[in-house]
Queue: 2 jobs
Job 1
Amino acid sequence: MSVPKNILESGFDTKSQCCGCGACVQVCAKNAIRMQEDDEGFLYPVVDTDLCVECGLCESVCQYIVSVGKNTALQHAYGGHINDADVLNESTSGGAFSAIADVWCDENYVIFGAEADGLKIRHSFVTDKNEIGKFRRSKYSQSVIGDSFKECKNFLNDGKKVLFSGTPCQIAGLKSFLKGKDYDNLLTVEVICEGVPSPLFVRKLDEKIQKEKKSSIISLDYRYKDSDRWDYQVMNISYSSTGNSINGTIKYDRWLNPFWSIWLAHLMSRPSCYKCPYTTFNRVADISLGDLWGAYAFCPDLYNKNKGASLIIANTDKGKKIAQNTLKTVFIGREIEFAQALKYQSPMRKNIDINPKRDDFMQDLKAMDYDTICKKYAKRKSLKFLFSKYILGTYRQRAWWKNIKRQLKK
Ligand SMILES: Cc1cc2nc3c(=O)[nH]c(=O)nc-3n(C[C@H](O)[C@H](O)[C@H](O)COP(=O)(O)OP(=O)(O)OC[C@H]3O[C@@H](n4cnc5c(N)ncnc54)[C@H](O)[C@@H]3O)c2cc1C
């Protein structure tokens, strides 16, 4: 396949061949390619045919054309959480990303990650690990990669130690951009990824807030660890009329949040996510990070109450060395069985299914307001479900009670 020049106007099948990593944009010596948003809110490369000299450079770095090479090293899995309570509180799961950055970055280093500016998500870098707070917290929207691959390459060639974090397709884009060259001074860290949703959905929520509160969203934390609430996966939205001081906040409980209901029903993912080539246990990066799903069943000692626990998978020797060093220094946990961890990580085993209602949903998303969309598509939870989650507790809480009962019987 070659890179189509008018991918923006093409259909789902062609679009599903482009994950939007932006390597083609950054490699083009003629500046003939730019990223442009389509009507679903996803970015695609658009080629200016007047500037294009058909040199083929863009195709040479397209990860969907070039094989990026799979890791073959024996993988190791670890579970646990960072030993710093404040950092843990700011992190999505167990703070594994911060622990790894802490160990890898000793001197002369650069860290790349995804930061948020209101609803805009973009990749950037810091040269002081005390500033990585802005990369913490998963932003469930595709980050705009900008010139990060070029900048990363320059830093690597200058001999700096680089930690590059992102989604698996972004890491594959970087590797492809680097032409598969191995750099001892590069550590790649990917989040295990279920796909990226259309940013149009949260923009609709912003429109609602603008209308009702005469304010705009200035920050959106998808998985706020709210100590006052039952569960730690609360969506916390702050809005402001001036752009500075917060006028108010809206909180959605995990089980009543239309965003999770709609996204996890796979109604609004990027087309390429349904055919993602990285939904396999052969990973792209040195280290993969995720939530320690299933901890209640196979390693309850690592669940860390409601504060969050991470899964770290070391895919290469370099990754293993760093992961093991975190356990000796800043990460509280232990090695766990890789096969068990894999059992609870569907994005490492299979693609997400295309919801047959996706087309209808995307059409409605463009035309309807936030409340109407949610009413039509967010699954209303049954009383039985809510009783089970809020009264009986989550699987983890129920497993915990069972354990206590077992101990008392002994
Ligand atoms: C879009 C997305 C989908 C995910 N899906 C799953 C899943 O299905 N299963 C699972 O177990 N885990 C998933 N994760 C990973 C999970 O949310 C945590 O990031 C992971 O558990 C690491 O936790 P932490 O406490 O170390 O995180 P934090 O310290 O909060 O780490 C944040 C890390 O995530 C990166 N990041 C944040 N937002 C983005 C973004 N938009 N694009 C690229 N990189 C980003 C940052 O650069 C940083 O490296 C997903 C993350 C994202 C961003």
Job 2
Amino acid sequence: MPRLMWPVAIGLVCAGASWVVSGMLHFPLIFQWMFLFYVALGTGVFLLLAAPELPLLRPGKAIVGLVAFYLFTSGVFLAGGAILPQFDPAVEQEKINKILKHRRAQFERPHNTEELLKRAQDLSVKANDLMGRVAKLQGSTAPVLAASLGTTLSPIERGKEVYQLYECYNCHKIGGKGGTKKRGPEMGNIGNLLTPQQIIKKILSTKADPYFYAEGFEKEHKKGLMPEKYRELMTEEELSTLAAYLMTLKNPAHVTPKPIFLKDEVQHGFIVYGYVRDESGQPVPNMKVSARPAKDGSHATSAITNKDGYYEAFLHLHNADVGAVIRLSVRNQKKELRADFDPSDKKTKRQATIDFIL
Ligand code: HEC
């Protein structure tokens, strides 16, 4: 029937267009399906308009039909409401209460960046120490340790809670989980790329006073996608525990983009790169390469080789670290190199290469 063809044809074109456009705009999948559903509804309306007239019903039959239709649609809506998750004000209220609880506990002070950064450093050292001890003692003693600190939550658990409360997951994924498509960078390896201080500075930075952006996210950075509101909203306790929690995300298998510093902060980064091959010259993929500056208290970094056996490890070295010895290890092979660079040169990438044959 040609006059029913038109609504179907137009509906199909609209469906395709809405799918492609919503995909290009990075709408979550569920939204894309919802748009399709709306197009289908609209097509249905036009189909009904174009459909041939039905023979007139007798009044009795018409009323029964109407009531049956009403009962059916009401049933569908009620069942949908019962099955689908609904907005629950109690959940939101609890989130707000949790935020306020910590805020009331420690009265508000303006951010003192210096002090804040120092505290974050202390916390991170403490947290690392604690993690080490917990790992040694096995999981069962963890609650005891947390209790001995006099809090119900360890700093890291608290940081995780802060991450949830401020809904960072709306844009960031951890190990591919949470977050919509490509709004913000993956966080699963952030602990290998940044220091707690740098994480805090990033959260406190604004479009007018930028600090760094994640590689590959220059456009998003220029648009100011990462909200600036945390600067006003977060307390020092929240910032430092959040940073301590993010520092525990150190899985080199997750691809977190490295920071591109916008000021004269090339000084913070030193890249060691190279290839891992076997004796016959074949690339060794998925191999963990660890790198650590040979001085006390320095952070170890690890990287994983790709299918070409290539790795790239990002180390935090400052100007004062010029000439520092960096120890690398792959399986049980160890190598060393010296970080040579010109501290007054703020443009050239600081890097060195070293290959391994296993
Ligand atoms: C509305 C989306 C959005 C939300 C919400 C958001 N971010 Fe971001 N974030 C981004 C985008 C986009 C980037 C990349 C551009 C840039 O670096 O400015 C980014 C970058 C980052 C980076 C740098 C990552 C790297 O690889 O160098 C960190 C760290 C970060 N965000 C932490 C957070 C934390 C912590 C929260 C929650 C308190 C949060 N973000 C909430 C969008 C968001």
